[in-house]
Amino acid sequence: MGIRLNLDTHTNGDSPIHCWRPAQKLIGLGVLVFAFAAVQDLRLVPAMLLVTGGLYAASGLPVSLLLNRFRYPGFFLLGIILLLPFVSGGTVVWQWGILALRQEGCITVLLITARFFSILTLGLILLGTTPFVTLVRTMRSLGLPPVLADMTLLSYRYLYDIADNLATMQTAMRLRGFSNRTRKGLLLPNGQTLKQLAALAGSLLIRSYEQAEQVYQAMRLRGYTLQNSKFKTQSSKFKTLSWSTTALFLTLLVAASFVIAEFLL
Amino acid sequence: MHIPDGIVPVQIGIGGYVVTGLITWYSLRQINRMKDPMQGVPKAALLTTAFFVASLIHLPIPPASVHLVLNGMLGCVLGYYAFPAILIGLFFQAVTFGHGGLSTLGINGLIMGIPALLAYHLFQLRQTFGRQLKPRLAFGLFAFLAGTFSLGLSALIFFTIVIVTIPSNLDAATERAAVFTLLLAHIPLALIEGTFTAMLVLFLERVKPELLQGEW
Q1: What ipTM goes with this model?
Q2: CB nearest to A34's CB, from B13, B46, B62
Q3: Number of independent structural domains in chain A
């Protein structure tokens, strides 16, 4: 497959995380994600950030990739960070008029931000060190239904083809004089523009549907069935099974420690 | 309308995965009962991608622009494939743009997927209740209802989860009022989404009607 997600550009490394077998890595990091999501005590945050930083350093992924990832924190998250310190909790630590900064709200924001950062970084480590196709095949070998796995792989295969189709059609529309005309009134879209954009989206769906017919015929000719997709995810670069299992065991131990500490503190 | 990682309690995240798993199992069971489930896989996959790409089209709504959700339209076209399609779309969004998250994939799947499945059934009602209407009118009307309803329901589930699970000083009445107010603010968007869905369905009905037949 020639098409690559941006993350796939870093999957050819030879760091210990790159060489960790995909199945063990997926289980280990997946469990750690949920252990981090369960952190409610502020005292566990430094340890959580330390583990996250350690894993990221071990993955050898560039820091610029991580920073690039945080360009999209989302307005929703930003809204919560700005709002919660003023509406959550009862202990006022600073007041200006009707605005009261509350201690509990600040703690919640710190927890949310730390969890968000750690989980997003773990996701980046997983996806940045494992080729996307290998990841889906690993999920398939771990029990992902074949319909879901095949749909994901085919969607991934045609993602940029269809995005290119859309870009070409949008260019053609502009060359024929289309512009996003707007009415003067607030919140009122131009009916003609809406109709043309609906035709654009419709044409995209029809092209994809017709392409899918050809894909299906080609797949049938090659003997495709839903049940026969046995995938091989082993590669010479992966470390031995015992190494990967030890790494999985250690990750599960760290995850269990966070959950137990959460109960005890 | 995606919940990022780290916002909701872990119980909600795990619960979301469990319910999403059940609905996926039910959807796959319905798919496997189809005449040739294998035939639908490439079509559903490419249409999933097309919907994912089409949702990047921005509609100019003065003074800004909005992007479409299209989960109602997805239900109208893909039927039971809509729920797996939404999971895949959300997975791509989490992976490529960082929208949503891996720990909240289940809950986000419910926010978008349940309305899509209901929109599918709502759209199918045209065959029962739309018989008295002209075919094009029935298509347009039920597509509008499916598009409007699915976005409205997604907004309702999203705001309810966020407001109820995030710790705040709000009492139950204030929380209800906040959900209601945020929902009211989404009515214009739901109407625009419904209008766009109706236009899109009417276009497909004219150019490629087999896309709306639902039986692959």
Answers
A1: 0.85
A2: B13
A3: 2
User: Model's pTM, two decimal places?
Assistant: 0.86
Contact call for B60 and A195, based on CB within 8 A: no
From B11, which residue of chain A is nearest by alpha-carbon distance? A38
Q: B125 in the Ramachandran plot: left (φ > 0), alpha (ψ -120 to 50) or beta? A: alpha
CATH code of domain B10-212: 1.10.1760.20
Contact in structure between A200 and A169 (CB atoms under 8 Å): yes
Residue among A33, A148, A151 whose CB faces B103 most closely: A33
Closest-approach residue (CA) in chain A for B39: A216
Which residue's structure tokens are 């590669």? A235
3-state secondary structure of B76: helix
Q: Which helix (H) or strand (E) holds A43?
A: none
Rounded to a whole number of angstroms, the distance from the CA of B117 to the nearest CA of chain A is 17
Range of the domain at A122: 6-75+112-142+236-264
- Centroid of chain to Cα B141: 18
Q: What is the pLDDT of residues B183-209, one digit of tens each?
A: 788 888 889 889 999 999 999 889 988
Q: Whole-angstrom Cα distance, residue B83 to residue B78? A: 9
